[in-house]
Specification:
heterodimer; A: about 300 residues; alpha/beta; Rossmann fold; nine-stranded mixed beta sheet; B: about 575 residues; alpha+beta; Butyryl-Coa Dehydrogenase, subunit A, domain 1; Butyryl-CoA Dehydrogenase, subunit A, domain 2; Butyryl-CoA Dehydrogenase, subunit A, domain 3; 4 domains; two-stranded antiparallel ribbon; 20 helices
Amino acid sequence: MYKIVVLVKQVPDTHNITANAMKEDGTVNRAALPTIFNPEDLNALEAALEIKDKFGAEVTAITMGPPAAADVLRECLYRGADKVILLTDRAFAGADTLATSYVISEAIKKLGKVDIVFAGRQAIDGDTAQVGPQTAEKLDIPQIGYMLELKSLKKDVIEVKRAIENGVEVVKCKLPVLITVTEQTNTPRFPSAKKVAVYKKAMTKSEINKIDPNQSYIDPSKYSEEYLRNKGLLIEEWGLNDLKLDPSMCGFAGSPTKVYKIDSVVLEAKETKNYEPTFEGVSTLIHELIQQHIIG
Amino acid sequence: MPNFFTENEDRLFQFNNLDIKEIVEIIEDNYKQAEKYDYAPENYKDAIDTYKRILTIAGQICAEIIDPLARSVDEEGAKFKDGEVEYAHGTKVALETLKKADLMGGTLPRVYGGLNLPNVINNIIIEMVSEADASLMNIYGLQDIGVTINKFGSKEQKDKYLPLFCSGEVTGAMDLTEPEAGSDLQAVQLKATYDEKEGVWRLNGVKRFITNGCADIHLVLARSEEGTKDARGLSMFLYKRDKDMKIRRIEEKLGIHGSPTTELQFNDAKAELVGKRKLGLIKYVMSLMNGARLGVSLQALGIAQAAYNKALKYALERKQFGQKIIEFPAVYDMLTNDKLDIEITRSLIYYTSKLVDETEALEKIIEEGNLDRESLTKYRERLKIVSKKADTFTPLSKYYSTEMANKVCYDAIQVHGGTGYMKDFDVERHYRDARITSIYEGTTQLQVVAAIGGIVTHIMDDEYEGFRNRAKGHEGEFIDVYEKLKKYEKMLHEAIEKVQEKKEKTYYDYMARTVVDMALLIWFAYKLMEESKKSSKKSMLARKFTVERLPVFEALYKKVMEADETTIRNYEELLGIKI
């Protein structure tokens, strides 16, 4: 049975932006926006679940975020994830992609043998598309970006059709691998009526203490950590100490990215150029990239 | 994100005021099922919360997946190729999505993998599916076949077939109609003979107009008693699709194109008897039909909602004479009346669904046999009243909702003007889809026949009294109306006496629909006033209803009391015919 990890993120719903969506320092004011399951992470989850349906797999969804991010993990359980883990710690706050991928990769290492890591191409809040690739680097495993279709999965070899500029390519890779998924890859399934009835009761330890017995259908006296664990309803929380992390590499402290200033940029579509896959073609490309100060 | 549940104010209102505590308690075995099944609720709050979540998922699927595909399903239709039916692409996607979301087997017990939902909750799903794609409801709603097997089948049959319904692996069909047996099912001729050698039943004959005849599991009404000619010679059989049943053709229809209507030929097809011989029509089909009639009522309601939504949207966008057409009294007259009709119909159907739930819950308690003599008598008496009410309210629902849907769709095209007559807009599809609802599973005229019996035996008196008692002391702004309705109840009694006093049944039959309308008018007025306690919008609708609709009652009363027989005596001459 394959072991699959899916990286998911709770993001502000950027479709419903209001005036106070941004803080004065130019970072996202998460408190002012409703949160949703990052759309392309749903595609990543679906990719994992399709493998589970077809080949058999144990699917673990992990997210890094505040305690409220347990919501997206429940959404994963509603759709068929087997296990979910919330990476949460005050020390993780303010993380850029580098610090985030550090925490996530360490969490994946703690899970032991993993065959495939699926991640959404990018999150709609930062649009960086960096966490997936950085995680692969830190795990020292190959990565395949922009998966369009799973062609085959035989033992430890996966064959994937991926989108590239102006076309597609089919690549083969040995497991383990990290694959990023886009909205084009698949249609995410809806929650299952039965699973919702079960996993709506799944919660983290800190959530147990917040149950309001007058509002809730849950009897808090019955719900202990032990009780939830026995029923398979405990959402595990891993923090700095659980992962034995270096605090200087986590959260704000571990994030070299600093917002300098915010500009309103209107993106203009530019023409695309083709370079032949020959020695001359590649050197022309590199030359132009150096000239335009993109590399070098 | 669009959602047919969370974005429909009236559905939410009805859901939030359901009050089904006792029913849920009984069907959940006092919440003991939670010990056995992880997806069973632990208490009433838990149950309601789960229902809400399930309806939200269904509402999202209907709005995001099924509704956008409905136009293509209508255009493509179910196809007939090489003796086999192929659903339209959109139908396949919709069924697969519902199946994956575990929304099959709604009311079936958990032991078979069902959701064990009360009918009233499952019916909201059926209504939303109909709003999204009316033709899909026929296939989705035919899970009723599973419900009938659960009610009357043997343990072996249930164990074997119900898990397949719950997982969505199979769909069902009910094979009743034949070329010479439509409304009159007593005339069914398809033959069932017992094959002594193999110890099985064999079916031979033809069925016509069979919805979803390509289904895997069929319930077939057949004549098992040779030489008989009436209902007492008919039994019900379970047939599992194999090569011995041929689909001869599928019909080209006005609407519900996604739903294949087939003609079937059974050639010595192996089948199992369901329940007891000779009870096929008398008991089992009657029960199955009641479920199906409620299903069609929900289908009609869903179509009406879809047509109304589109008409309202159009009326807000379209400008003529320098203003939005919704601002013209003649236009908002239509739309406010349609809204009123949709909402009173929803109240009627949900109430009927609750009666069905209550009937089944009481039957369950009595059957389980853990009652002392006194409570047993009490429950039996209650069951007698409630089941009689359910049997009357089901045809009332079907009668009213399907006629209503036809009218609302008519108005929806009217609001669109010439544009609505074109295929570019959805309302012409809704209009075509609505048309069948007042015909199949018993025409409007037959629903009146089925309902009038309950009305003349004063089944409504208990209803009206209940409304009055609950309102006592806080009639508020409607105090005059309550007084008036008391008077109307007396007038209804007089009208009932009038139609019964004549020796010939002709006048009774002729006036049946009028009397049914009178009874419904009073019920709707009471219901709306009761609902107005919980919502100011309902209070407006109640006022509109009592001012604009209720006066018709007196005209209907006069018509009955006049006892004029001009039409009855002269219809042949009037039509210029001789029978």
